Amino acid sequence: MALYAVVPAAGVGKRMKADRPKQYLQVNGQSILEHTLTRLLCFPMFEKIMIAVNHDDPFFHNMPVSKDVRILNCDGGKERVDSVLNGLNALVQQGADVSDWVMVHDVARPCISLNDIQRLYDARNEHGAIIGAPVRDTMKRTDAQGNIIETVEREQLWHALTPQLAPLGVLKKAIEFSLQNNLPVTDEASALEHVGLKPIMIAGLASNIKVTHPDDLAMITQFLTNES
Ligand SMILES: Nc1ccn([C@@H]2O[C@H](COP(=O)(O)OP(=O)(O)OP(=O)(O)O)[C@@H](O)[C@H]2O)c(=O)n1
Ligand SMILES: C[C@](O)(CO)[C@H](O)COP(=O)(O)O
């Protein structure tokens, strides 16, 4: 069975408060999107990489990486889950089979390691598998005013990261079911859980952070500089 990637990249990056969507901010002379796609392209097993971009995206199609033979693109959607579903449907339209494997990876996670991708692929199963990082700190829940309400048990508590893997048809049906039933889907595993599946957690590098807030830029610059 073939392996495909879907890269949700149609967000606007509100929390980054930048002059452009965060995936187009530059780090070491390249946009975050280029860092991420270049890294995914280094994993030879990806048959095709389907990136979901905003319909009016003024940047993507002018980038050399958009011309790579393995890079396909489709329109993103209102929410991340809609962009992912659009990507899955676009892959099927391009000839992917529902029995093929798909990994979904945020464009905003440029520090993904090829080793983590390989380990996720090696863990492939019908329930799905995701890359995560175990929580390291004591976790607190607060009220809206920041008053600590409780300490959250952190045993077996993880940060869900990406990529997240599943059989393409299984994930597509799980997302469609979740949307039809108004169930919350913030990652692929939550959709799989909604249909009773139990994806496996694979411990990955904590450096695989999602660029979300302005202070994340310094961190990924450090990670990407140290790797090069
Ligand atoms: N409608 C959307 C919303 C998000 N994403 C993508 O989903 C990933 C994770 O989402 P997030 O970090 O929340 O990105 P944004 O939605 O851009 O950030 P914000 O919530 O701060 O606006 C990102 O790669 C983003 O581009 C997407 O493809 N389509
Ligand atoms: C999918 C994800 O990266 C898992 O941690 C995360 O949920 C995406 O960010 P969002 O802000 O929830 O869209």
Automatic annotation (TrEMBL):
**Catalyzed reaction equations:** 2-C-methyl-D-erythritol 4-phosphate + CTP + H(+) = 4-CDP-2-C-methyl-D-erythritol + diphosphate
Record keywords: Nucleotidyltransferase included? Answer: yes
Q: Where are the transmembrane segments?
A: none
E.C. number(s) listed in UniProt: 2.7.7.60
Q: Name one GO biological process term.
A: isopentenyl diphosphate biosynthetic process, methylerythritol 4-phosphate pathway
Q: Which PROSITE patterns match?
A: ISPD
* One Gene Ontology molecular-function label: 2-C-methyl-D-erythritol 4-phosphate cytidylyltransferase activity
Q: Quote any Pfam family the record assigns.
A: IspD
Give the positions of the site Transition state stabilizer.
15, 22
User: Keywords assigned by UniProt?
Assistant: Isoprene biosynthesis, Nucleotidyltransferase, Transferase
* The keyword Transferase appears for this protein: yes
Per the record, the domain of life is: Bacteria
Q: Where are the residues marked Positions MEP for the nucleophilic attack as a site?
A: 154, 210
Q: Which pathway does the database say it acts in?
A: Isoprenoid biosynthesis; isopentenyl diphosphate biosynthesis via DXP pathway; isopentenyl diphosphate from 1-deoxy-D-xylulose 5-phosphate: step 2/6
The cross-references to SUPFAM superfamilies, in alphabetical order and at most eight, read:
Nucleotide-diphospho-sugar transferases
Top-level enzyme category: transferase
| Entry's family note | Belongs to the IspD/TarI cytidylyltransferase family. IspD subfamily.
Q: What does this protein do?
A: Catalyzes the formation of 4-diphosphocytidyl-2-C-methyl-D-erythritol from CTP and 2-C-methyl-D-erythritol 4-phosphate (MEP).
Name of the molecule in the record: 2-C-methyl-D-erythritol 4-phosphate cytidylyltransferase
Q: Which organism is it from?
A: Bermanella marisrubri
